[in-house]
């Protein structure tokens, strides 16, 4: 029986008020939205007839496999130390759940992954309903009820047995009714399916022999017995009530699905059924109707929707108002696995901020789970849209939702896995093998009706447990052969307490922080609104921190061992600080925690260092000045000055002891901190600039080389000035808007002040500006250039300020002393840029202007050349040099290598042909010349005169153009109509330069071959600008400059004249090419003679290489010989079709003789000799169809290599042809004379 305090089911499960809808749905998890999952629209839906007519690809025939029973786990179940818990026990008291948090781990064999426990804690509470389990065992032993087979859960618990009894339990685990009898079980078989209607007043019970009984649970009376509602002689596998009053769904072992309507008319009970899916088209294994009657707020109230799953397909239909297919999906998996279905309602937040409740169907098979949302599409049509897919590493056999974000998956090893649907992370794993889960394999095999099911159905149902794993709200009920258990999700607070009780305080703190920061998974149990949840969690963390600190102090190690003590404090302090900061508990951090750790010197230092990362990440901007004072003192004492500076600039000034901080900064040169304290604490942006520039000036005036620290100071000053003039705070952040104009004005005024405060009579004018120019002229001028981009310097007053700055710069650097040529050059570049960008607003005298121009175009100075050219070009483009003679400017620009400047001037003067020279002389832009030539010749805005001049430049600089890119030269000549006529002129220009002429012709003919149209290969050779004469000239040059490519080119080329090309090849002694051309001309004998000469040469090379031990060289030479033999065989075969017997012998026998002559020298080289004999065999087998066998044998046997031998030595030469021509009488006539004695001598 249940413990005291467990009452009846709460009334809120009967009928839910719409105002409390979201709370009752228990939607504690993060919501889904359409944007996150990118929900696509669903296309046209199929009809029911089309589904029924499809072949089920996952089904298998009865003959494709044989059934093999699966072994089930055999474990003994232990009940010691386990709890009794009611179905609705999520809020159970601490006393009831304490045992299950510790002892049950060992007693019941529950196992979890350690890494998951540390990350998420114990998410599930797993308890045994001892009252139900004990009465199941008692009913089996005392009244012969048999083993449990199925269950249904609602306001009550109904469990069917193998002997036809149905035990009905109250939520308190008290037995309420025992329906049926053992005699009924003998007649109907075991109870195979149960279904409770929404108010638990009616119970449908299905039996293994096919009968269905309807019970009234208010009176325990049998109302109807239905025997003809589904396929005869099949077991009832599933019974499900729908939303529609009196309507249920039946699924039987024949794979068919029926709609059952139960009515009561004039005091009489009646029923009728109709088939909605026939098992002849694929057996349905499970069904799951969508129950929406308790969601009065949802728009999906009219349709009655049913999800069905065959062995390999999910089909969703609407039963009311009309039968219609809504969705189908193929599930391909192992034949031993069953499909799984589970509905869940989820809150969906729409793009307009509204929230709707839509059902989500999770379905899967083997290792894959799919999630689809049912929603309204266009014109109120129902649509299924995919959310995501999850793949697991185990084989599934059960599926149940725990809430809107967690799915419970039961695998074939009888382990329960909890999966976060959104992240697809496995949160926890529980071993339930001790449960001895009930399987419905006998029902799926229809043993009670003679086993009249398909083998596919029987095999897939071997591990069917649809009715043994049932979810009710956020609980999963599990039916075992001797036990009845419940798995439910722990509340967030219970998870924390469970970790603390187990001695895992650190894990509890980390989990609590994750919950506070909304990073934890599977968080349930909050009764407050979202904005108030953090306050509740914060108070829980405060309590946990107090317990953690008490425990840490209680377990303090011996103070004599400093290493162990340091490790202990590091372990404790780091987590405590992390949690206190993360949860916003500064009062705990700087209260009890500081008091606890500051009493010990070791702990104090560790605590102060633990604060640093949170200060630097701006999580701790405010601290007590006394603690900050300790922190800075500790950092100074340990020599961590950079860390001290970093902390100062991230803390609020009110957290600092200003005297201590400023003393520390000036003593150790912490310049960022000095700027920070002055600007943030005193709102003074000028004083730190004046003081630090003075420090830098004194360092530079000392005459010594600046130290690294002094160089760093100068760089920081430049960055500080740049930030102030741009409106940004230094070293980070932004200046307040109300202070922005004042700060810019004060800093600018300081830089351009004539003298400093309390200046000595010897002080130079503009000391601050002068010092920064001396330190780094170029970078300081860049700072000014960036500042001039601000809006303050674009007004009329701002332009005057610009002019003033330029005048000061000229006065200090040009008219004054102490600046070198490089520094002056940076100034002149800066002035030129300002002149070009301000459209004449910056004025300088003509003499200075000449100095600027001379510097920019200095040909002997290669420093910053591109920057100087850009400045001059910008000045030129803005008209700043309109009064300057172009010829003089061009002269200076060419001397300096400023070809972009020359291009601009030539463009202005219309001398486009000279721009070609600019491109050719500019090494960085040479390749752009082709684009420019093409643009000029293709554009309509250029006259014929311009085009003519460009063409002249093209011919004049043809050699340079070829050196840059010969392929682009060819492209221009062949694709630009204005350049194509110049082809002959280009060739004549290059007649005295064979290398460039060959390069040009090679590019031209290569371009033609690679860009020819599909039909161009058969065109006339005279067509186009590339004439046969030009091609023959190209071949002639190739024979001289690149002779190894001639043969390859001739084989693939078209358009050349055969006779003229043959003469060219003969003149250059291109033997292989000559043979190829003779063959094309029909002179087979001439081609053969040349190829034979080449073969003999290559044979000589091979024989000559035998004197060395260079094996790779032997292999290369042998390869050359083999390749030449192949060519000769092909020529001989070609000639044999045109010649008589005598002529054929003149081709084949010289080839054979050449190969036979190789054998004696190779007698000592077995491998090479074998290769040569293989070549001889190839030649003999190739010639046997053209030369008589007798003549071949006679020729072979005359060879010294075979003279005196027997027939076995040459049998391999004829073996292939012998078996091909064994019926040839001519061949048969020669064999007896040669093999009579198996020894034939010809010498």
From TrEMBL:
InterPro entries: Vps41/Vps8, Vps8_central_dom, WD40/YVTN_repeat-like_dom_sf, WD40_repeat_dom_sf
Pfam families (UniProt xref): Beta-prop_VPS8, TPR_Vps41, TPR_Vps8
Residue span(s) of domain Vacuolar protein sorting-associated protein 8 central: 606-788
Ranges for region Disordered: 86-119
Superkingdom, taxonomy of origin: Eukaryota
Gene3D superfamilies per UniProt: YVTN repeat-like/Quinoprotein amine dehydrogenase
Cellular component annotations (GO), alphabetically ordered: HOPS complex; late endosome
Residue stretches of biased makeup (Basic and acidic residues): 91-117
Biological process according to GO: endosomal vesicle fusion; protein targeting to vacuole
Family stated for the protein in its record: Belongs to the VPS8 family.
Cross-referenced PANTHER family: VACUOLAR PROTEIN SORTING VPS41 (PTHR12616), VACUOLAR PROTEIN SORTING-ASSOCIATED PROTEIN 8 HOMOLOG (PTHR12616:SF8)
Entry protein name: Vacuolar protein sorting-associated protein 8 central domain-containing protein
Organism lineage: Eukaryota, Metazoa, Ecdysozoa, Arthropoda, Crustacea
């Amino acid at each position: 029986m249940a413990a005291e305090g467990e009452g009846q089911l709460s009334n809120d499960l009967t009928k839910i008020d719409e105002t409390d809808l979201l709370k009752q749905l228990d939607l504690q998890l993060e919501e889904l939205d359409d944007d996150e999952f990118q929900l696509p629209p669903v296309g046209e839906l199929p009809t029911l007839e089309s589904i029924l007519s499809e072949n089920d690809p996952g089904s298998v025939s009865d003959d494709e496999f044989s059934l093999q029973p699966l072994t089930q786990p055999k474990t003994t179940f232990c009940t010691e130390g386990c709890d009794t818990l009611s179905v609705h026990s999520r809020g159970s008291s601490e006393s009831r759940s304490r045992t299950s948090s510790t002892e049950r781990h060992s007693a019941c064999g529950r196992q979890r992954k350690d890494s998951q426990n540390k990350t998420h804690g114990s998410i599930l509470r797993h308890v045994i309903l001892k009252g139900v389990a004990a009465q199941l065992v008692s009913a089996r032993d005392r009244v012969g009820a048999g083993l449990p087979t199925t269950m249904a859960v609602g306001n009550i618990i109904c469990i069917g047995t193998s002997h036809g009894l149905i035990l009905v339990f109250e939520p308190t685990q008290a037995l309420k009714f025992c329906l049926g009898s053992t005699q009924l079980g003998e007649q109907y078989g075991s109870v195979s399916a149960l279904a409770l209607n929404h108010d638990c007043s009616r119970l449908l019970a299905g039996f293994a022999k096919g009968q269905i009984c309807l019970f009234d649970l208010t009176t325990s009376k049998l109302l109807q017995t239905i025997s003809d509602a589904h396929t005869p002689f099949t077991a009832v596998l599933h019974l499900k009530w729908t939303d529609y009053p009196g309507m249920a769904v039946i699924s039987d072992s024949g794979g068919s699905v029926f709609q059952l309507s139960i009515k009561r008319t004039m005091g009489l009970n009646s029923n009728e059924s109709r088939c909605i899916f026939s098992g002849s088209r694929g057996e349905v294994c499970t069904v799951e109707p969508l129950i929406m009657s308790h969601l009065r707020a949802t728009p999906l109230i009219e349709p009655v929707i049913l999800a069905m799953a065959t062995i390999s397909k999910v089909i969703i239909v609407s039963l009311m108002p009309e039968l219609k297919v809504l969705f189908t999906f193929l599930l391909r998996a192992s034949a031993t696995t069953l499909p799984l279905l589970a509905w869940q309602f989820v809150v969906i937040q729409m793009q307009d901020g509204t929230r709707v409740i839509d059902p989500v169907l999770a379905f899967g098979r083997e290792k894959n789970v799919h999630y689809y949302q049912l929603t309204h599409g266009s014109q109120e049509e129902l649509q299924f849209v995919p959310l995501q897919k999850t793949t697991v590493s185990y084989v599934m056999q059960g599926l149940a939702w725990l809430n809107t974000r967690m799915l419970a998956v039961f695998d074939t090893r009888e382990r329960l896995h909890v999966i976060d649907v959104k992240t697809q992370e496995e949160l926890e794993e529980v071993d339930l093998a001790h449960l001895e889960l009930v399987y419905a394999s006998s029902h799926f095999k229809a043993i009670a009706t003679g086993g009249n099911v398909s083998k596919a159905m029987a095999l897939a149902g071997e591990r069917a447990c649809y009715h043994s794993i049932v979810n009710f709200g956020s609980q999963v009920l599990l039916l075992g052969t001797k036990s009845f258990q419940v798995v439910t999700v722990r509340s967030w607070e219970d998870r924390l307490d469970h970790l603390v009780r187990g001695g895992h305080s650190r894990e509890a703190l980390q989990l609590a922080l994750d919950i506070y920061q909304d990073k934890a998974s599977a968080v349930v149990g909050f009764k407050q609104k979202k904005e108030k949840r953090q306050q509740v969690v914060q108070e829980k963390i405060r309590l946990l921190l107090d317990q953690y600190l008490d425990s840490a102090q209680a377990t303090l190690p011996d103070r004599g061992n400093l290493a162990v003590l340091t490790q202990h404090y590091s372990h404790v302090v780091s987590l405590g600080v992390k949690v206190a900061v993360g949860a916003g508990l500064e009062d705990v951090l700087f209260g009890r925690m500081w008091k606890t750790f500051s009493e010990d010197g070791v702990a104090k230092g560790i605590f102060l260092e633990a604060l640093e990362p949170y200060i630097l990440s701006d999580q701790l901007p405010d601290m007590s000045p006394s603690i900050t004072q300790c922190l800075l003192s500790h950092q100074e004492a340990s020599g961590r000055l950079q860390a001290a500076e970093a902390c100062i600039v991230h803390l609020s000034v009110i957290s600092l002891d200003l005297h201590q901080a400023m003393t520390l900064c000036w003593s150790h040169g912490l310049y960022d901190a000095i700027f920070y304290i002055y600007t943030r604490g005193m709102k003074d942006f000028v004083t730190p600039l004046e003081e630090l520039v003075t420090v830098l000036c004194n360092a530079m005036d000392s005459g010594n080389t600046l130290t690294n620290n002094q160089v760093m100071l100068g760089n920081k000053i430049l960055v500080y000035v740049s930030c102030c003039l741009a409106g940004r705070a230094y070293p980070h952040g932004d200046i307040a808007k109300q202070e922005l104009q004042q700060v810019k004005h004060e800093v600018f005024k300081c830089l351009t002040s004539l003298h400093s405060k309390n200046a000595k009579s010897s002080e130079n004018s503009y000391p601050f500006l002068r010092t920064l120019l001396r330190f780094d002229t170029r970078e300081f001028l860049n700072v000014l250039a960036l500042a001039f981009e601000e809006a303050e310097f674009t007004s009329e007053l701002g332009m005057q300020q610009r002019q003033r700055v330029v005048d000061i710069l000229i006065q200090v650097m040009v008219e004054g002393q102490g600046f070198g040529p490089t520094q002056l050059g940076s100034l002149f570049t800066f002035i030129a840029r300002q002149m070009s960008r301000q459209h004449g607003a910056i004025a300088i005298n003509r003499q200075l202007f000449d100095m600027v121009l001379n510097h920019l175009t200095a040909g002997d100075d290669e420093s910053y050349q591109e920057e100087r050219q850009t400045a001059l070009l910008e000045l030129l483009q803005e008209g700043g040099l309109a009064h300057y003679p172009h010829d003089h400017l061009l002269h200076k620009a060419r001397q300096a290598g400023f070809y972009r400047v020359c291009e601009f001037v030539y463009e202005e003067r219309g001398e486009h042909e000279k721009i070609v020279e600019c491109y050719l002389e500019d090494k960085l832009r040479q390749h752009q010349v082709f684009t420019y030539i093409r643009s000029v010749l293709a554009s309509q805005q250029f006259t014929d005169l311009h085009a003519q001049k460009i063409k002249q430049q093209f011919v004049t600089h043809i050699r340079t153009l070829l050196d840059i890119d010969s392929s682009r030269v060819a492209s221009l000549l062949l694709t630009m109509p204005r350049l194509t006529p110049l082809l002959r002129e280009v060739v004549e220009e290059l007649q005295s330069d064979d290398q460039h002429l060959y390069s040009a012709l090679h590019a031209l003919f290569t371009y033609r071959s690679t860009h020819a149209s599909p039909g161009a290969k058969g065109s006339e050779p005279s067509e186009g600008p590339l004439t046969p004469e030009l091609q023959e000239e190209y071949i002639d040059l190739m024979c001289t400059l690149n002779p190894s490519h001639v043969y390859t080119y001739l084989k693939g080329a078209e358009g050349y004249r055969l006779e003229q090309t043959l003469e060219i090849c003969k003149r250059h002694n291109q033997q292989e090419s000559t043979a190829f051309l003779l063959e094309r001309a029909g002179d087979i004998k001439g081609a053969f003679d040349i190829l034979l000469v080449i073969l003999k040469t290559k044979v000589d090379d091979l024989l000559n290489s035998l004197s060395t031990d260079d094996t790779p060289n032997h292999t290369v030479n042998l390869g050359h010989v083999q390749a030449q033999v192949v060519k000769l065989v092909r020529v001989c075969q070609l000639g044999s079709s045109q010649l008589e017997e005598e002529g054929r012998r003149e081709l084949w026998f010289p080839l054979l003789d050449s190969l036979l002559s190789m054998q004696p020298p190779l007698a000592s080289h077995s491998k090479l000799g074998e290769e040569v004999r293989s070549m001889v065999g190839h030649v003999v087998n190739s010639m046997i169809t053209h030369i008589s066998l007798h003549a071949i044998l006679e020729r072979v046997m005359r060879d010294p290599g075979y003279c005196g031998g027997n027939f076995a030595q040459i049998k391999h030469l004829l073996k292939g042809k012998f078996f091909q021509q064994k019926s040839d009488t001519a061949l048969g006539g020669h064999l007896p004379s040669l093999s009579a004695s198996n020894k034939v001598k010809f010498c």
